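Reminder: ligand-aware prediction takes two inputs, not one.
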Amino acid sequence: MQRNDCKLAQDLMPLRIEELLSEESKAFVDEHIAACPPCAQMYGYMQATLPKEKEAQQRESASFKAAMAQFQKTMAWRRIRYILTGLLIAALILALLTALNTIRKPLALDKFDISLKRTQDGQLLEVWDYHNTSYGGNSYTHGGTDKEGNYIVYLNHEVPLLQLGGYTNAAKHYQLSSFSLQDDGNLYESDLVFHYASGSWDSGTSTQIMEIRQGTEKDYKVLYRAGDTLPAAEQMELDAARRYLPYAPLTAENPAATPLPPADNAMPFAPKQETPVLTAAPAN
Ligand SMILES: [Zn+2]
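Here is what comes back for the chain with zinc ion:
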């Protein structure tokens, strides 16, 4: 036996204990231990201590893994929290933008003009001129009786505090209103009532319009006063109005929109002959 054999056998001992040696190397170590008491003693000592070291290592490694897992879990939660917070902030911003888009304010009076014209068949034609600018929101008409009992009509345009979508109004538009000029030359708002039995429109109550104002109760300019003579609408303006308003507006009395009458028809929204389908034969 050579001195070198001891060195080699001792080097291989840990691997022998962990059963990591080839059969040949294993035989070499076993034979050497059997023949060399100092190496046998060292091998015994290694056998006693190595597994403990390994266990300790494993324990360390296990607690490291646990710490790592805990860390990853914390990171995952943190990431989820960031995502949730981000989503919440996005939702709040969206809600705020939607609110700003929904809340309307009147368009300033100097941003647009409205001229009122009369048609040959006694309708009122409104020309809304937005000075070559498009705004969001919508134009609207509302009437009401003031303290003196005068029926006043307001024409106005409301824009969103913040415009999100496209700009809806044309820079200029022509609109036939439901107000009509009657024989006395004054403008009236009529509640037209459609009678299914006879298939005809009748005026209900007619209210004389004392003033038409552009703007709001607080800030307005007067466009028309009872007694004023309105200028006649031009053919081009009438054509434009009929293009933009192909159907009569929906009302409680007129739940199914009906086509506009031909220009020479005296009744503003009289239906064509074939329109009333719901009709029952007259009771007589
Ligand atoms: Zn030896």
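The beta strands are 104-106, 113-118, 123-129, 138-145, 151-160, 172-181, 187-195, 200-208, 211-215, 220-225. The pocket of zinc ion is lined by residues 6, 9, 32, 36, 38-39 (CB under 6 Å). We will return to this case in the review session.
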